[in-house]
Amino acid sequence: SLSINPKDEL
Amino acid sequence: MNIFRLTGDLSHLAAIIILLLKIWKSRSCAGISGKSQILFAIVFTTRYLDLLSTFISLYNSCMKVIYIGCAYATVYMIYMKFRATYDGNHDSFRVEFLVVPVGGLAVLINHDFSFMEILWTFSIYLESVAILPQLFMISKTGEAETITTHYLFCLGLYRALYIFNWVWRFYFEGFFDLIAIVAGVVQTILYCDFFYLYVTKVLKGKKLSLPA
């Protein structure tokens, strides 16, 4: 997956 | 974490605090779109649900709590504490025209068809258009208080800095998130017209007013 996981950005 | 990301977050924080202070000091929310502020409260709530499930860093958790807290405080000030000063007649943007398509898009185009991921995607899409009721209100009244323009400038600057952050991350970490980038670019484009007015008018000491 290309997503941020975990989501470190706000 | 890079310098663009950090200054972007701080610019975002500055925007939120400028707006709160403006309302608190003037005891008035005139010229502020309550609808945009409700949308931002929804954005933070749906995006930061992972506060309950995932710990990333103290910085990450603190900022999320501050953003959510300030968003609800702003909505409270507009619709409860200083309700009498709220200019509802000019805040006439139809938010269902944003929320419904954005909800549909989040269900259709996401990284993973799961509850948390769809809510995160929804918040990313919604944030990109959440300022529209505010910009619509300014175009309707034809003017904005200078402090309101500082708020909008910081909010737009935060988005522009995030784009630099993504360029940085792509080059140095080989990382990119297409959903966040496309939504972020759309969001930044929405501010371009405003940036132009801010630089040509507000920074030269003039009030922001639009030609009739």
TrEMBL record, chain B:
The lineage of its organism: Eukaryota, Metazoa, Chordata, Craniata, Vertebrata. Keywords: Cytoplasmic vesicle, Endoplasmic reticulum, ER-Golgi transport, Membrane, Protein transport, Receptor, Transmembrane, Transmembrane helix, Transport. The chain crosses the membrane at residues 65-82, 94-113, 119-138, 150-168, 174-199. Signal peptide: none annotated. One of its GO terms (molecular function) is ER retention sequence binding. Belongs to the ERD2 family. Coiled coil: none annotated. Pfam families: ER_lumen_recept. It comes from the Eukaryota. It is found in: Cytoplasmic vesicle, COPI-coated vesicle membrane; Endoplasmic reticulum membrane; Golgi apparatus membrane. GO terms for cellular component: COPI-coated vesicle membrane; endoplasmic reticulum membrane; Golgi membrane. InterPro entries: ER_ret_rcpt. GO terms for biological process: protein retention in ER lumen; protein transport; vesicle-mediated transport. This is ER lumen protein-retaining receptor. It is a multi-pass membrane protein.
